[in-house]
Structures are given as structure tokens and as C-alpha cells.
Amino acid sequence: MQKIHIVGLVMIAISVGVLISMMSDVTEYSNFTEAQRSGGRVKAVGKLSKDKPMEYDPQANANYFSFYMKDDEGLEKKVILNQSKPQDFEMSESIVVTGKMKGDSFVADEILLKCPSKYKDEEIYLKKEQQQI
After folding, report:
1. 26 burial type by CB count under 10 A (0-12 exposed, 13-18 middle, 19+ buried)
2. DSSP states along 32-49
3. Are 76 and 95 in contact (CB under 8 A)?
4. Is the dihedral of CA 69, 75, 77, 79 positive or negative?
5. pTM (2 decimals)?
6. How far apart are CA 32 and CA 43, in angstroms?
7. pLDDT tens over the chain, length 133 residues
């Protein structure tokens, strides 16, 4: 076998390995119940519980932020984010946290916020205008 064939086979093997590792990292959206059951890394979707306290003290620990989130099933859990508090966090419509359940809390290492659309007022105006026609 020539060296070029060996190099080609090694490159194909590496590519397949990379694709498999990337596919295993993709998780589906779930809730706290499924996160507790699986014990693995999941993406939990929910809304901020605004009536519960948030804990963030950047002077004591800038990489610790905790809050309460209610998932789509209505189950409320404490979420511990090992990052700083995201800007405009309280204005988010929906939250997606990626992490694992540890005890009764969800420990997240990634967060994604869905904020209100800046076009929302314009959409409401256009709907009212269409209803008048």
C-alpha cells in the first residue's frame, strides 16, 4: 500500500471520529424530570421564576449566579450557573440551560436567553391595522 493511501485512510478515520463525537454532544430539549432520570447532560427549557430570589454577588464570586426556573411541565428548580449573570436576564421570555442535575439543583455551564423581540410593538401595530381593514 502506498503512503498516500495510508494517509487517506487515516484522514477518513479521523473525520468519522470527529463526526461521531459531535453527534453525541447534541442533546434534545428536555425538562427537570428527564434531567433527574437521565443523570447526564441535558438542555432544560423554562421560564424565570420572578417571585423567587436570584443570587449574584460579583465581588464575592463573579462566576456564581443562581436563580429559580420553572420548566415547561411546571416543575420549579434552583439553577446554579457557573458564569456571570447575563445582561438583561430578567427581561428574558424563555431560558435554555445546559448542564446536569446535582441533588435538588440543576448545575448549568451554558445558558441561552430568548429575549422579547424588538419588533413586537411593530407586530402588534400591524395586526391592529389589519383588523381595521
Report:
1. exposed
2. HHHHHHH-S-EEEEEEE-
3. no
4. negative
5. 0.67
6. 9
7. 688 888 888 899 998 888 777 665 545 778 888 888 887 888 899 999 989 999 999 899 989 999 999 998 889 999 999 989 988 888 888 999 999 999 899 999 899 988 766 555 555 555 556 666 5
